[in-house]
Sequence to fold (500 residues):
Amino acid sequence: MKQSYVLLGSLAMAIVLTFLSPFFQPSHVSADVSAAFDSEDAIIPQKIVSTSKEEQVNHIIYDRDQIIGVLIDQDKLDALLANAYEQSYQVDYPDTKLGLGEDIHIVDEISFFIYEDKDEEILDYINENQLFSVEAHKIEFSNGEVMYVKNLDDFVAARDAFALNFIDQESYELLNAGKETAELGEYQYGTRVMDAAFKEDMSVTRGLAPISKIAKNEEEALKIISYGYDAETEYYTTQEYDTVQGIAWLNHLSIQHLLALNSEVLASENQLLKVGTELNVTSINSPIHFEVIKENQVEEIVYPNETLIVYDDTLREGVEFIETEQELGRENVRYQETFVNGQSTGSGKKLSSVITKQPVREVKRVGTKVYPHIGSGHFRWPVEVASITCSWYCYSGHAATDVQNRYNFWGQVLASDRGTVVTNSFDYVGGYYMIIDHNNGYQTYYGHMSSPGFYSPGTVVQQGEPIGNIGMTGYATGPHVHFEIRYNGVRLDPETLVGL
Fold:
């Protein structure tokens, strides 16, 4: 009897071990993944219906980090892709293939679990949400950016159109042909393009992409090149006294790009604008960068050395007169300037200069050694290599001239004429600013300096003497000097007085 019990016990143990043995096999599926299929976390919930003694390959489909479900028969997915291509994509994208969307990926996991078959629901979800990618030309740039186009010719045409926002057609064609543009004559003022090219290299392959990311024509390709994917168009409605220059300045656009964006309504930068006109002012946010190197020849003022003071002890204290009048000189200067996508890099350099008229230094005879503090009445720009970024009334209320040092955005601010510092202060509009009284009815104002001016009120400064540094404090969108000339409290247009 005892031997019978032992036999029965051994038989029962064998049955138990046989039944439980699959659960003692090593599993290749993490507990977290397995639990997700048996819960509401998956988009298509699936239960574990049984276990297997042999390893099973489960095709787990993800939409980003969210599990859609476990696909049992992958052949059904291949059939879905083939059918969807034939019915919806073959006409527009012939001789290519269809794949899953860029956020859809399949992970093959090995386990001993067998899940309930919900292939039809999973495939319906993929089809209804159009989670597909189409094979197209994949253009990869050396900076890591990628774009897709249906036709490569559309990309080439769009790339050229993008470049023509920043360079004229003739120069672009000459440089692409390996030729040079015509050099400027000795007295020929203006600009020529020395060199131009895209900074990024590119390679073209075939790749899968969502149809929403594939440029189907030249217009769509140009929009992607200009603004990237998912760009939102921005508009500006013109107001009274608006100018093309002012609108470009307010919206951080080059005049050339603003004209290109609105070619149907804008013919030139000097065009008079009708109030209420809606203009496209979308800023460039391109995945690629077109660099243009320009040579610019201009006539510039050559300022004489500071006034020569001749002390004359035959004249009583306080008596002074101009013995030799100041005369401004002129010179022809060539600069090299680099632009990227239409914006200056601020890293230009002087190539050459030829003086065409020598300046004449002012000689002042005075009867004492008291430093003169009365202005000469002759004004200079408050920066070297002055470039006007916003003229007198370039937008409503702008009764001043904004000037920038073309080749040193953060350079020095210079006194426009000699005089006495009366204000060195700060406010939320002008930022750090200084006012100089020239003691002859004139005052000059210098705004947006990077820090407080160098001198306290009461200090006498000379014409051309550094009084601070260019900045963009207060209400300013870029480094420049907000420059005003006032006569008896009335603001005057600086462009009509400087250099006289």
